[in-house]
């Protein structure tokens, strides 16, 4: 599985544009074959910081994503709304790395 986290600092005056664009893009990415997760989260401490979490089944799915028409649009559009170049963590993980968190038990 491909595991990606992207930290995006948005220009305060472009926040609404970013939210509209990332909403559009997220819906498109979720429709891709091989996409497992694509979600954007707002920081609770910094109002203009967002994190994108993306998972793909394998390298081929990730490569298909990067070359898609909507990804090319996003990569061209993003510089118009960000305050700095986004930061990324990209890892290829073996197997199915999602498992339950052992430190948390549901109340009955």
Automatic annotation (TrEMBL):
Oxidoreductase recorded as keyword: yes
Domain ABM: 2-90
Family matches, as Pfam families: ABM
Molecular-function GO terms, alphabetical: monooxygenase activity
Entry annotated with the keyword Oxidoreductase: yes
Keyword list, A-Z: Monooxygenase, Oxidoreductase
Protein's recorded name: Antibiotic biosynthesis monooxygenase
Source organism (scientific name): Pseudonocardia oceani
Lineage: Bacteria, Bacillati, Actinomycetota, Actinomycetes, Pseudonocardiales
């Amino acid at each position: 599985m491909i595991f990606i986290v992207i930290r995006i600092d948005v220009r305060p005056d472009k926040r609404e544009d970013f939210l509209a664009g990332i909403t559009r893009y997220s819906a498109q990415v979720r429709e891709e074959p091989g996409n497992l997760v694509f979600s954007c989260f707002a920081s609770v401490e910094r109002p203009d910081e967002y994190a994108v979490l993306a998972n793909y089944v394998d390298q081929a799915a990730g490569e298909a994503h990067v070359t898609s028409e909507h990804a090319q649009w996003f990569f061209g559009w993003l510089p118009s709304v960000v305050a700095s170049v986004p930061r990324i963590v990209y890892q290829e993980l073996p197997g199915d790395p999602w498992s339950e968190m052992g430190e948390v038990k549901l109340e009955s």
